Amino acid sequence: MRTRIRHFRKQRGLTQTELAMRLGTTAATVSRLETADMTVSTGWLERIAGELDEPVTDLLDAPSKEALACIGNVERDGRVIALAAPVFPSASLHSRAREPMLFRMGETLGPYAKGDLLIADCLSAAQAGCAIGRDCFAGSAESGFRFGRLISLAADACILMPPEAGAPPCEVASPNWIAPVVTLIRNYPPLKIASADF
């Protein structure tokens, strides 16, 4: 049975090892549970749901493109403020992201307009070398979520350049994941149509 354990674990910024320690098991077992290589019992689901602070039913439901929820707002200096509760856009969102994460621009910064929705593809830090030079989100237990152009990536940290002019680079120590932006959704203001006099 396929689950969303991996999706929610990454959203919480946890590695398989960290989740395994909380559950009193091994990273290999967590990996097998995430990839459906072993049967997930009700007991396992309840324990995992408790650690991830998610309802058991959310771990079971297959993700749908319509269910992609915004999890944070991008603010100045690349800070990403996590939302208290996920926000579901009214439109159906389609993206080629394998592990989609949705964020919203909290204000106009650089080329991004307030209200833009950014869908990013969540990668492990080890996979993220291909994202150098791309606008990315990064998350770690120490630094929280950050956003900007990925300009440097090492085993113990990455450096992002926020989108607004003059902002200093920000460092994310020990990133658990890096998610390059793959889709931008922008709503333009409605047209003001003058009424015709007949």
Architecture overview:
The chain has 198 residues and is an alpha+beta fold. It is built from 5 helices and 10 strands; from the N terminus they run αααααββββββββββ. It has helices spanning 5-11, 16-23, 27-34, 42-52, 56-60; strands spanning 70-74, 80-87, 100-105, 117-121, 123-124, 135-140, 144-153, 157-161, 170-173, 177-185. Strands 1, 2, 3, 4, 5, 6, 7, 8, 9 and 10 form a 10-stranded mixed β-sheet that branches. The radius of gyration is 19 Å and the shape is globular. The termini are far apart. Residues 62-66 have low confidence and may be disordered.
Main sheet summary: 10 strands, mixed
**Morphology call:** globular
Low-pLDDT sequence parts: 62-66
The percent of residues in helical segments reads 10-25%
Task: Report the portion of residues in β strands.
Answer: 25-35%
- List the total number of helices: 5
Give the termini distance in whole angstroms. Answer: 65 Å
- What is the CA-based Rg, rounded? 19 Å
Total number of strands: 10
Q: Please tell me the overall pLDDT.
A: 84
Order of helices and strands: HHHHHEEEEEEEEEE
Q: What structural class do you assign from the helix and strand content?
A: alpha+beta
